[in-house]
Amino acid sequence: MLRQIDPNDHEKLREYLDSRSEDISTEVILKVTEILHAVKKEKDAAIRRYTKQFDGIDLEDYRVREEEINEAAAQADPKFVESMRQAKANIEYFHNAQKQHGYLLEKAKGIYLGQRVLPLDSVGIYVPGGRAQYPSSVLMNAIPARIAGVKRIVMITPPSKMGTLHPNIAAAAKLAGVTEIYKVGGAQGIAALAYGTETIAKVDKIVGPGNIFVAAAKKLVYGKVDIDMIAGPSEILVIADADANPAYVAADLLSQAEHDPMASAILVTTSSKLLENVNKELVKQTAVLPKREIVEQSLKNYGTAICCASLSACVEIANAIAPEHLELMVKQPMQLLHEVRHAGSVFLGYYTCESVGDYYGGTNHVLPTSGTARFSSALGVDSFIKKSSYLQYSEEAIQAYGDNIICMAQQEDLDAHANAVKVRLKK
C-alpha cells in the first residue's frame, strides 16, 4: 500500500528521500583508505592478499585470458546472448547520435579559435560479483566508451568461489568489445585501476556500481582519476492519468521496489480512483514476487502516492523530486514531456515500462539518483570524452589587441603576463 501525502508536502518528501543517502561512515573510510594505501605501495601482492581475505580464493594470476573469456561466454544461454546482441544494437543506435565534433572559428587579422573533442585513453569498468550479476551494465558502460573512441576498456569483477568468470558477464564483455578483464573486486580493485599494479595499468576514469566499500574507494580516488558518480538508492516516479492501467502502474512501481529496501516508488496522479486500484494491484502482485520481503519493506518505507488537480501539477512535483526514472503514463506523453525539467530518464506512454530502458531500448540505465538529476546527466558518450581548446593570434592581431591584454594583466598585478605581450609589440 502507498501512503498518501498532500501535494503541498512534496518538499518534505524530497527531504525524506534525501535521507536515504547516508554519509559513508568513518569506519568504512578508514578501512578503505588502508586498502588504497596498501595497493598503492604493494601493488599485486596487496591485490592477492585482499582477494584471499575478502573473496576466499587464492589467485596467483587474476588476469582473465582470452580462452577463459571464450570458454565462459560459451556457457551462456544462447537466447539470452541473442537478446543482448539486439540490445547492443539498440544501445549503439542511440549513443552514436551523441558523438560530438570539434570546430574551428576564424576572425579578422589572422585569429583562429577552435575546440577538439578527444576520447579518454583508458577506462575501468567495475562489475559487481557474488550473487548479483549485471551483464546489462557491462553493455551500458562499455558501449558508450567504445563509441567515444576509448582505446583501452578494462573490466574488473570479483571472482567466484571457484575462481571463475560468470558466463553472462563474459558474454556481455565479448559483445561490448571488452578484452582486458581482471578477477578482482572491492576497494582493492578500484585502487588497482586508479594507481596501477604490475599486472593492471592505471586508467583515466572508473565507472560502474558497487557496494559501500567500492563507493568509498571511488570517492577517495576521485581527482587521481575521474569517476562516473556515487549512486544512491534507486527510485521511480510514475505520473499517471485516469486512463492508465492500474496493473501496469503497480508492476512498474514494484520493478523498483524489488531493488532494495531503500528504493523509492512514487505515484503522482490526478485520479483517486486509479490510486485505489493501484493499491489493490500492489497487494495482489507483491504476494507472488520472490523478493516479497524486500518489496514490502521498500513500499512501507518509501512507497508514496500524491493526488494532484492537474497533470501540470504532477510534473511540478516530479521536477522538485528530480527522480532517477520518470514514467509519463498518460494519454499524450509528448505534450507533457516539454514541462519536465529534472529527471534521469523519461519513459513515455502506457507501454514503455522502465524495464525497456534498463535492458533493451537503447537509452542508458546508468542514471543520476537522489535528486542529482537537477544538475547531472545519464552516462553516455560525453562521459568518456574531454574537450581541448586552441587559439592562434597572428602578428597583426597581437599588435592590434596587445594593449588591451596588457591593461587587463596589469590590473591583476601580473606584470610578467603583461610583459609576455609587450615583448611582441613593435617599438
Automatic annotation (TrEMBL):
Pfam families: Histidinol_dh. It comes from the Bacteria. PROSITE patterns: HISOL_DEHYDROGENASE. One of its GO terms (molecular function) is histidinol dehydrogenase activity. Zn(2+) binds at residues 256, 259, 358, 417. Pathway: Amino-acid biosynthesis; L-histidine biosynthesis; L-histidine from 5-phospho-alpha-D-ribose 1-diphosphate: step 9/9. Binds 1 zinc ion per subunit. The active site is at 324 (proton acceptor), 325 (proton acceptor). Its EC number is 1.1.1.23. This is Histidinol dehydrogenase. NAD(+) binds at residues 126, 188, 211. It is an enzyme of class 1 (oxidoreductase). Substrate binds at residues 234, 256, 259, 325, 358, 412, 417. Keywords: Amino-acid biosynthesis, Histidine biosynthesis, Metal-binding, NAD, Oxidoreductase, Zinc. It comes from Longicatena caecimuris. PANTHER family: HISTIDINE BIOSYNTHESIS TRIFUNCTIONAL PROTEIN (PTHR21256:SF2), HISTIDINOL DEHYDROGENASE HDH (PTHR21256). The keyword Oxidoreductase applies. CDD domains: Histidinol_dh (cd06572). GO terms for biological process: L-histidine biosynthetic process. SUPFAM superfamilies: ALDH-like.
